[in-house]
Design brief:
Helix content: 40-55%
Strand content: 15-25%
CATH superfamily of the largest domain: tm_1862 like domain
Largest sheet: 9 strands, mixed
Strand order of the largest sheet: 9-10-8-7-6-5-4-1-11
Oligomer: single chain
Shape: globular
CATH architecture of the largest domain: Alpha-Beta Horseshoe
Structural class: alpha/beta
Number of strands: 17
Number of domains: 2
Number of helices: 18
Protein backbone atom coordinates (compact mmCIF):
# COMPACT_ATOMS: atom_id res chain seq x y z
CA UNK A 1 0.00 0.00 0.00
CA UNK A 2 1.48 3.42 -0.96
CA UNK A 3 2.64 5.58 1.95
CA UNK A 4 0.16 8.35 1.12
CA UNK A 5 -2.95 6.16 0.96
CA UNK A 6 -3.69 5.97 4.69
CA UNK A 7 -3.44 9.72 5.41
CA UNK A 8 -5.37 10.57 2.22
CA UNK A 9 -8.25 8.24 3.07
CA UNK A 10 -8.41 9.50 6.64
CA UNK A 11 -8.89 13.08 5.45
CA UNK A 12 -11.36 12.41 2.65
CA UNK A 13 -13.51 10.07 4.77
CA UNK A 14 -13.91 12.79 7.37
CA UNK A 15 -14.68 15.47 4.80
CA UNK A 16 -17.15 13.40 2.77
CA UNK A 17 -18.95 12.14 5.88
CA UNK A 18 -19.53 15.75 6.91
CA UNK A 19 -20.54 16.83 3.41
CA UNK A 20 -23.23 14.14 3.10
CA UNK A 21 -25.18 14.94 6.26
CA UNK A 22 -28.82 15.25 5.24
CA UNK A 23 -31.79 15.74 7.54
CA UNK A 24 -34.97 14.13 6.17
CA UNK A 25 -38.25 16.00 6.47
CA UNK A 26 -41.33 14.32 5.04
CA UNK A 27 -43.10 17.67 4.74
CA UNK A 28 -40.25 19.21 2.76
CA UNK A 29 -41.43 20.77 -0.49
CA UNK A 30 -39.06 22.45 -2.90
CA UNK A 31 -38.56 22.78 -6.61
CA UNK A 32 -34.98 23.83 -7.39
CA UNK A 33 -34.60 26.83 -9.66
CA UNK A 34 -33.92 25.59 -13.20
CA UNK A 35 -30.52 26.48 -14.68
CA UNK A 36 -30.33 28.55 -17.84
CA UNK A 37 -28.96 25.69 -19.95
CA UNK A 38 -30.16 22.09 -20.32
CA UNK A 39 -28.63 19.81 -17.69
CA UNK A 40 -28.18 16.10 -17.07
CA UNK A 41 -31.05 13.89 -15.90
CA UNK A 42 -30.60 10.78 -13.77
CA UNK A 43 -33.57 8.38 -13.69
CA UNK A 44 -33.62 5.79 -10.91
CA UNK A 45 -35.36 2.46 -11.51
CA UNK A 46 -34.98 0.52 -8.24
CA UNK A 47 -36.20 -2.89 -9.43
CA UNK A 48 -34.10 -6.08 -9.67
CA UNK A 49 -35.00 -9.71 -10.32
CA UNK A 50 -32.89 -10.82 -7.35
CA UNK A 51 -30.94 -8.69 -4.87
CA UNK A 52 -27.16 -9.11 -4.99
CA UNK A 53 -25.71 -9.08 -1.44
CA UNK A 54 -22.80 -6.76 -2.28
CA UNK A 55 -24.93 -4.01 -3.85
CA UNK A 56 -25.43 -0.81 -1.84
CA UNK A 57 -27.77 0.93 -4.27
CA UNK A 58 -31.42 1.62 -3.48
CA UNK A 59 -33.25 -1.39 -4.94
CA UNK A 60 -36.16 -3.76 -4.33
CA UNK A 61 -37.41 -6.94 -5.96
CA UNK A 62 -39.26 -6.43 -9.22
CA UNK A 63 -43.03 -6.67 -8.85
CA UNK A 64 -44.86 -6.02 -12.13
CA UNK A 65 -48.17 -5.16 -10.48
CA UNK A 66 -46.60 -2.58 -8.13
CA UNK A 67 -43.94 -1.18 -10.45
CA UNK A 68 -46.57 0.20 -12.88
CA UNK A 69 -47.55 2.83 -10.31
CA UNK A 70 -43.90 3.73 -9.78
CA UNK A 71 -43.21 4.25 -13.49
CA UNK A 72 -46.36 6.37 -13.80
CA UNK A 73 -45.06 8.53 -10.93
CA UNK A 74 -41.64 8.70 -12.55
CA UNK A 75 -43.10 10.12 -15.75
CA UNK A 76 -45.22 12.56 -13.75
CA UNK A 77 -42.13 13.80 -11.92
CA UNK A 78 -40.28 14.30 -15.21
CA UNK A 79 -43.26 16.37 -16.43
CA UNK A 80 -43.18 18.41 -13.19
CA UNK A 81 -39.56 19.38 -13.81
CA UNK A 82 -40.35 20.24 -17.41
CA UNK A 83 -43.26 22.45 -16.36
CA UNK A 84 -40.93 24.19 -13.89
CA UNK A 85 -38.58 25.11 -16.74
CA UNK A 86 -35.97 22.32 -16.65
CA UNK A 87 -34.61 20.90 -19.91
CA UNK A 88 -32.32 17.87 -20.17
CA UNK A 89 -29.55 17.15 -22.66
CA UNK A 90 -28.14 13.85 -21.36
CA UNK A 91 -30.07 11.05 -19.67
CA UNK A 92 -28.64 8.29 -17.52
CA UNK A 93 -30.93 5.48 -16.30
CA UNK A 94 -29.60 3.45 -13.38
CA UNK A 95 -30.88 1.13 -10.74
CA UNK A 96 -31.63 -1.52 -9.84
CA UNK A 97 -31.92 -3.04 -13.27
CA UNK A 98 -33.74 -0.53 -15.51
CA UNK A 99 -34.47 -3.10 -18.21
CA UNK A 100 -36.62 -5.36 -16.00
CA UNK A 101 -39.71 -3.82 -17.64
CA UNK A 102 -38.85 -2.80 -21.18
CA UNK A 103 -42.28 -1.36 -22.01
CA UNK A 104 -42.29 0.99 -19.02
CA UNK A 105 -38.66 2.00 -19.55
CA UNK A 106 -39.18 2.83 -23.22
CA UNK A 107 -42.33 4.83 -22.43
CA UNK A 108 -40.34 6.78 -19.82
CA UNK A 109 -37.54 7.55 -22.28
CA UNK A 110 -40.12 8.74 -24.79
CA UNK A 111 -41.57 11.06 -22.14
CA UNK A 112 -38.17 12.70 -21.66
CA UNK A 113 -37.40 12.98 -25.36
CA UNK A 114 -40.78 14.56 -26.06
CA UNK A 115 -39.96 17.42 -23.69
CA UNK A 116 -36.21 17.99 -23.93
CA UNK A 117 -33.41 18.26 -26.53
CA UNK A 118 -31.86 14.93 -25.52
CA UNK A 119 -28.57 14.15 -27.25
CA UNK A 120 -27.53 10.96 -25.42
CA UNK A 121 -29.18 8.25 -23.33
CA UNK A 122 -27.30 5.67 -21.26
CA UNK A 123 -29.04 2.67 -19.68
CA UNK A 124 -27.77 0.04 -17.25
CA UNK A 125 -28.60 -3.65 -17.63
CA UNK A 126 -27.46 -7.15 -16.66
CA UNK A 127 -26.07 -9.90 -18.92
CA UNK A 128 -29.29 -11.94 -18.99
CA UNK A 129 -31.05 -9.02 -20.69
CA UNK A 130 -28.70 -8.97 -23.69
CA UNK A 131 -31.43 -10.31 -25.96
CA UNK A 132 -31.58 -9.21 -29.61
CA UNK A 133 -35.20 -8.02 -29.55
CA UNK A 134 -34.77 -6.01 -26.34
CA UNK A 135 -31.52 -4.41 -27.52
CA UNK A 136 -33.14 -3.42 -30.81
CA UNK A 137 -36.04 -1.80 -28.97
CA UNK A 138 -33.66 0.13 -26.72
CA UNK A 139 -31.66 1.37 -29.69
CA UNK A 140 -34.84 2.49 -31.43
CA UNK A 141 -35.82 4.31 -28.23
CA UNK A 142 -32.68 6.46 -28.50
CA UNK A 143 -30.28 4.58 -26.22
CA UNK A 144 -26.71 5.30 -27.34
CA UNK A 145 -24.85 3.63 -24.48
CA UNK A 146 -25.71 0.31 -22.88
CA UNK A 147 -23.81 -0.42 -19.66
CA UNK A 148 -23.69 -4.11 -18.69
CA UNK A 149 -22.95 -5.14 -15.11
CA UNK A 150 -20.54 -8.06 -15.45
CA UNK A 151 -18.24 -7.53 -12.41
CA UNK A 152 -15.95 -10.51 -13.18
CA UNK A 153 -15.34 -13.32 -15.67
CA UNK A 154 -14.31 -15.70 -12.88
CA UNK A 155 -17.06 -18.24 -12.15
CA UNK A 156 -15.90 -18.66 -8.56
CA UNK A 157 -16.20 -14.95 -7.87
CA UNK A 158 -19.54 -14.79 -9.67
CA UNK A 159 -20.81 -17.61 -7.47
CA UNK A 160 -19.59 -15.82 -4.34
CA UNK A 161 -21.44 -12.68 -5.44
CA UNK A 162 -24.54 -14.81 -6.07
CA UNK A 163 -24.51 -13.84 -9.75
CA UNK A 164 -23.54 -17.12 -11.41
CA UNK A 165 -26.99 -18.70 -11.35
CA UNK A 166 -28.79 -15.41 -11.91
CA UNK A 167 -26.92 -14.03 -14.89
CA UNK A 168 -24.95 -16.91 -16.39
CA UNK A 169 -21.43 -18.23 -16.17
CA UNK A 170 -18.46 -16.38 -17.62
CA UNK A 171 -18.50 -18.02 -21.05
CA UNK A 172 -22.22 -17.32 -21.48
CA UNK A 173 -21.68 -13.67 -20.55
CA UNK A 174 -18.77 -13.45 -22.95
CA UNK A 175 -20.90 -14.82 -25.81
CA UNK A 176 -23.74 -12.40 -25.06
CA UNK A 177 -21.37 -9.42 -25.02
CA UNK A 178 -19.81 -10.49 -28.31
CA UNK A 179 -23.28 -10.66 -29.89
CA UNK A 180 -24.17 -7.20 -28.52
CA UNK A 181 -21.19 -5.43 -30.10
CA UNK A 182 -22.09 -2.87 -32.72
CA UNK A 183 -25.76 -2.52 -31.75
CA UNK A 184 -25.16 0.66 -29.73
CA UNK A 185 -22.60 3.41 -30.36
CA UNK A 186 -21.13 2.52 -26.95
CA UNK A 187 -21.23 -0.88 -25.24
CA UNK A 188 -19.81 -0.48 -21.74
CA UNK A 189 -18.82 -3.33 -19.42
CA UNK A 190 -18.82 -2.67 -15.67
CA UNK A 191 -16.17 -4.58 -13.71
CA UNK A 192 -15.13 -4.66 -10.04
CA UNK A 193 -11.60 -5.10 -8.75
CA UNK A 194 -10.24 -5.86 -5.28
CA UNK A 195 -13.07 -8.30 -4.59
CA UNK A 196 -12.66 -10.69 -1.65
CA UNK A 197 -10.59 -13.65 -2.82
CA UNK A 198 -9.61 -11.98 -6.09
CA UNK A 199 -5.97 -12.40 -7.07
CA UNK A 200 -3.84 -10.59 -9.62
CA UNK A 201 -4.05 -13.72 -11.80
CA UNK A 202 -7.86 -13.51 -11.71
CA UNK A 203 -7.69 -9.84 -12.64
CA UNK A 204 -5.34 -10.67 -15.52
CA UNK A 205 -7.89 -13.22 -16.76
CA UNK A 206 -10.61 -10.55 -16.70
CA UNK A 207 -8.35 -8.22 -18.66
CA UNK A 208 -7.57 -10.97 -21.17
CA UNK A 209 -11.27 -11.56 -21.80
CA UNK A 210 -12.01 -7.85 -22.16
CA UNK A 211 -9.19 -7.35 -24.62
CA UNK A 212 -10.33 -10.32 -26.68
CA UNK A 213 -13.86 -8.90 -26.78
CA UNK A 214 -12.71 -5.40 -27.74
CA UNK A 215 -15.80 -3.67 -26.32
CA UNK A 216 -16.11 0.09 -26.70
CA UNK A 217 -15.74 0.97 -23.04
CA UNK A 218 -14.79 -0.65 -19.73
CA UNK A 219 -15.46 0.78 -16.26
CA UNK A 220 -13.26 -0.78 -13.56
CA UNK A 221 -14.67 0.11 -10.16
CA UNK A 222 -12.95 -0.59 -6.85
CA UNK A 223 -15.20 -2.49 -4.45
CA UNK A 224 -17.55 0.07 -2.86
CA UNK A 225 -20.11 -1.11 -0.31
CA UNK A 226 -22.13 0.19 2.62
CA UNK A 227 -21.60 -1.45 6.05
CA UNK A 228 -24.52 -3.90 5.74
CA UNK A 229 -23.43 -4.95 2.25
CA UNK A 230 -19.84 -5.45 3.45
CA UNK A 231 -21.16 -7.69 6.23
CA UNK A 232 -23.24 -9.74 3.78
CA UNK A 233 -20.32 -10.10 1.38
CA UNK A 234 -17.95 -11.03 4.20
CA UNK A 235 -20.18 -13.97 5.12
CA UNK A 236 -20.20 -15.36 1.58
CA UNK A 237 -16.78 -14.31 0.25
CA UNK A 238 -14.63 -13.04 3.10
CA UNK A 239 -12.78 -9.73 3.31
CA UNK A 240 -11.02 -7.96 0.46
CA UNK A 241 -7.30 -7.27 0.84
CA UNK A 242 -6.72 -3.50 0.75
CA UNK A 243 -3.03 -4.12 0.05
CA UNK A 244 -3.95 -5.44 -3.41
CA UNK A 245 -5.87 -2.33 -4.45
CA UNK A 246 -2.84 -0.38 -5.63
CA UNK A 247 -1.10 -3.17 -7.58
CA UNK A 248 -4.44 -4.17 -9.13
CA UNK A 249 -5.11 -0.62 -10.26
CA UNK A 250 -1.60 -0.41 -11.69
CA UNK A 251 -2.21 -3.64 -13.60
CA UNK A 252 -5.44 -2.23 -15.03
CA UNK A 253 -3.65 0.90 -16.27
CA UNK A 254 -0.81 -1.14 -17.73
CA UNK A 255 -3.17 -3.44 -19.61
CA UNK A 256 -5.88 -0.97 -20.70
CA UNK A 257 -3.61 1.83 -21.92
CA UNK A 258 -2.84 2.85 -24.63
CA UNK A 259 -5.38 0.70 -26.55
CA UNK A 260 -8.00 2.56 -24.53
CA UNK A 261 -7.87 6.14 -23.33
CA UNK A 262 -8.69 7.04 -19.73
CA UNK A 263 -12.06 8.81 -19.92
CA UNK A 264 -11.85 9.03 -16.12
CA UNK A 265 -9.75 7.46 -13.39
CA UNK A 266 -11.80 4.24 -13.69
CA UNK A 267 -13.42 4.39 -17.13
CA UNK A 268 -11.54 3.43 -20.30
CA UNK A 269 -12.88 4.18 -23.79
CA UNK A 270 -11.76 3.29 -27.30
CA UNK A 271 -13.31 6.33 -28.95
CA UNK A 272 -13.72 10.02 -28.25
CA UNK A 273 -16.80 11.54 -26.70
CA UNK A 274 -18.16 8.38 -25.11
CA UNK A 275 -20.48 8.84 -22.15
CA UNK A 276 -19.11 8.25 -18.65
CA UNK A 277 -21.86 8.59 -16.03
CA UNK A 278 -19.44 9.89 -13.38
CA UNK A 279 -18.21 12.81 -15.47
CA UNK A 280 -20.69 15.68 -15.27
CA UNK A 281 -20.11 18.21 -18.04
CA UNK A 282 -22.95 20.44 -16.89
CA UNK A 283 -22.85 22.38 -13.63
CA UNK A 284 -26.18 20.86 -12.52
CA UNK A 285 -27.95 17.53 -12.68
CA UNK A 286 -31.40 16.35 -11.59
CA UNK A 287 -32.27 12.96 -10.17
CA UNK A 288 -35.83 11.61 -10.40
CA UNK A 289 -37.26 8.52 -8.76
CA UNK A 290 -37.09 7.16 -5.22
CA UNK A 291 -33.63 7.50 -3.67
CA UNK A 292 -32.21 9.74 -6.41
CA UNK A 293 -29.76 12.60 -5.78
CA UNK A 294 -29.59 16.00 -7.47
CA UNK A 295 -27.08 18.84 -7.50
CA UNK A 296 -28.64 22.13 -8.60
CA UNK A 297 -27.58 25.70 -7.89
CA UNK A 298 -24.97 24.74 -5.31
CA UNK A 299 -27.30 22.53 -3.25
CA UNK A 300 -27.61 18.76 -3.00
CA UNK A 301 -31.04 17.14 -2.88
CA UNK A 302 -32.33 13.64 -2.22
CA UNK A 303 -35.74 12.17 -2.90
CA UNK A 304 -37.53 9.93 -0.40
CA UNK A 305 -36.37 6.33 -0.14
CA UNK A 306 -39.94 5.15 0.50
CA UNK A 307 -41.43 4.01 -2.80
CA UNK A 308 -44.95 4.45 -1.44
CA UNK A 309 -44.27 7.95 -0.16
CA UNK A 310 -42.56 8.82 -3.44
CA UNK A 311 -45.62 7.79 -5.45
CA UNK A 312 -47.98 9.65 -3.11
CA UNK A 313 -45.91 12.85 -3.29
CA UNK A 314 -45.74 12.88 -7.08
CA UNK A 315 -49.40 11.93 -7.45
CA UNK A 316 -50.13 14.93 -5.22
CA UNK A 317 -48.32 17.28 -7.59
CA UNK A 318 -44.93 17.47 -5.82
CA UNK A 319 -41.52 16.15 -6.77
CA UNK A 320 -39.91 13.42 -4.68
CA UNK A 321 -37.41 15.64 -2.84
CA UNK A 322 -37.49 15.34 0.94
CA UNK A 323 -33.93 16.40 1.80
CA UNK A 324 -31.66 19.29 0.94
CA UNK A 325 -28.20 20.40 1.90
CA UNK A 326 -26.83 23.74 0.73
CA UNK A 327 -23.10 23.67 0.14
CA UNK A 328 -20.82 26.48 1.18
CA UNK A 329 -18.75 28.25 -1.47
CA UNK A 330 -15.64 26.25 -0.53
CA UNK A 331 -17.59 22.98 -0.56
CA UNK A 332 -18.89 23.78 -4.04
CA UNK A 333 -15.34 24.47 -5.21
CA UNK A 334 -14.15 21.21 -3.67
CA UNK A 335 -16.96 19.36 -5.42
CA UNK A 336 -15.93 20.85 -8.77
CA UNK A 337 -12.28 20.05 -8.04
CA UNK A 338 -13.14 16.42 -7.30
CA UNK A 339 -15.66 15.70 -10.06
CA UNK A 340 -14.14 17.71 -12.91
CA UNK A 341 -10.58 16.56 -12.31
CA UNK A 342 -11.76 12.94 -12.09
CA UNK A 343 -11.94 13.13 -15.88
CA UNK A 344 -8.21 13.88 -16.00
CA UNK A 345 -8.17 17.63 -16.61
CA UNK A 346 -9.62 20.70 -14.92
CA UNK A 347 -9.61 23.49 -17.50
CA UNK A 348 -8.20 26.82 -16.39
CA UNK A 349 -10.74 28.69 -18.52
CA UNK A 350 -13.59 26.92 -16.71
CA UNK A 351 -12.08 27.75 -13.30
CA UNK A 352 -11.70 31.43 -14.18
CA UNK A 353 -15.19 31.67 -15.66
CA UNK A 354 -16.91 29.94 -12.75
CA UNK A 355 -14.83 30.88 -9.70
CA UNK A 356 -12.24 33.48 -10.63
CA UNK A 357 -9.24 33.99 -8.34
CA UNK A 358 -11.18 32.76 -5.31
CA UNK A 359 -10.63 29.17 -6.42
CA UNK A 360 -6.83 29.32 -6.01
CA UNK A 361 -7.15 31.21 -2.71
CA UNK A 362 -9.77 29.07 -1.00
CA UNK A 363 -8.41 25.73 -2.20
CA UNK A 364 -4.74 26.66 -1.74
CA UNK A 365 -4.08 23.87 0.83
CA UNK A 366 -5.68 21.18 -1.36
CA UNK A 367 -3.97 22.40 -4.54
CA UNK A 368 -0.56 22.54 -2.84
CA UNK A 369 -0.96 19.14 -1.17
CA UNK A 370 -1.81 17.43 -4.45
CA UNK A 371 1.14 19.05 -6.24
CA UNK A 372 3.55 18.04 -3.50
CA UNK A 373 2.13 14.54 -3.56
CA UNK A 374 2.81 14.34 -7.28
CA UNK A 375 -0.88 13.79 -8.04
CA UNK A 376 -1.34 16.84 -10.28
CA UNK A 377 0.65 18.98 -12.64
CA UNK A 378 -0.24 22.53 -13.63
CA UNK A 379 0.20 23.95 -17.12
CA UNK A 380 -1.11 26.87 -19.12
CA UNK A 381 -4.40 25.11 -19.92
CA UNK A 382 -5.26 23.83 -16.46
CA UNK A 383 -4.64 21.11 -13.90
CA UNK A 384 -3.98 17.52 -14.99
CA UNK A 385 -3.77 14.22 -13.15
CA UNK A 386 -0.55 12.24 -13.17
CA UNK A 387 -0.57 8.45 -13.00
CA UNK A 388 -0.31 8.72 -9.20
CA UNK A 389 -3.07 11.28 -9.32
CA UNK A 390 -5.36 8.86 -11.15
CA UNK A 391 -4.96 6.43 -8.26
CA UNK A 392 -5.58 9.21 -5.71
CA UNK A 393 -8.72 10.34 -7.53
CA UNK A 394 -9.96 6.78 -7.82
CA UNK A 395 -9.61 6.48 -4.04
CA UNK A 396 -11.31 9.82 -3.43
CA UNK A 397 -14.23 9.10 -5.72
CA UNK A 398 -14.63 5.67 -4.13
CA UNK A 399 -14.79 7.30 -0.70
CA UNK A 400 -17.26 9.88 -1.98
CA UNK A 401 -19.56 7.10 -3.18
CA UNK A 402 -19.01 5.17 0.03
CA UNK A 403 -20.31 8.27 1.83
CA UNK A 404 -23.31 8.30 -0.53
CA UNK A 405 -23.82 4.58 0.21
CA UNK A 406 -23.85 5.35 3.93
CA UNK A 407 -26.58 7.94 3.32
CA UNK A 408 -28.56 5.37 1.33
CA UNK A 409 -28.23 2.86 4.14
CA UNK A 410 -29.44 5.33 6.77
CA UNK A 411 -32.37 6.44 4.63
CA UNK A 412 -33.38 2.87 3.79
CA UNK A 413 -33.27 2.03 7.50
CA UNK A 414 -36.09 4.57 8.00
CA UNK A 415 -38.35 2.56 5.66
CA UNK A 416 -36.96 -0.92 6.34
CA UNK A 417 -40.35 -2.43 7.17
CA UNK A 418 -41.84 -1.22 3.89
CA UNK A 419 -38.92 -2.43 1.80
CA UNK A 420 -38.80 -5.84 3.51
CA UNK A 421 -42.52 -6.32 2.94
CA UNK A 422 -42.14 -5.38 -0.73
CA UNK A 423 -39.24 -7.79 -1.22
CA UNK A 424 -41.11 -10.70 0.35
CA UNK A 425 -44.03 -10.37 -2.05
CA UNK A 426 -42.21 -11.63 -5.13
CA UNK A 427 -39.29 -13.95 -5.78
CA UNK A 428 -38.28 -14.61 -9.39
CA UNK A 429 -37.45 -18.29 -10.02
CA UNK A 430 -33.74 -18.67 -10.72
CA UNK A 431 -34.63 -21.22 -13.40
CA UNK A 432 -36.39 -18.42 -15.29
CA UNK A 433 -33.33 -16.19 -15.06
CA UNK A 434 -31.16 -19.02 -16.29
CA UNK A 435 -33.30 -19.23 -19.45
CA UNK A 436 -32.60 -15.55 -20.02
CA UNK A 437 -36.31 -14.70 -19.70
CA UNK A 438 -37.36 -11.11 -19.25
CA UNK A 439 -38.99 -10.78 -15.81
CA UNK A 440 -42.73 -10.53 -16.15
CA UNK A 441 -42.80 -13.17 -18.91
CA UNK A 442 -41.49 -16.05 -16.82
CA UNK A 443 -43.82 -18.91 -15.88
Amino acid sequence: MPWFEGPLLTVVRREFAAAMRFAEDDTFEVMPKPPAAPCQLYVHVPFCEVLCPFCSFHRVRFNASKSKRYFDALRREIALYHDAGFRFCDVYVGGGTPTVDADELIETLAAVRARSPVRSISVETNPNHLQPELMQRLRDAGVRRLSVGVQSFDDGLLAGMERLEKYGHAEQIRERLAAAKGIFPTLNVDMIFNLPGQTLAMLDHDLDVLQSLGVDQVSFYPLMTAPSARHAMQKSMGLSDARLRHPMYGRILDRMLPAYRAASAWCFSRGEGMFDEYIIEQDDYVGVGSGAFSYVGGAMYSTTFSLQHYCRRVEGGHNGITQRRSLSLKERMRYDFLVRLFGGTLDRAYIERRWGRAFAVRLAPELLAMRLLGATRHDADGIRLTRRGMYCWMLMMAEFFNAVNDVRERMRAHVRQELDAWNEEVRVPLSALGRGAVPGTAD
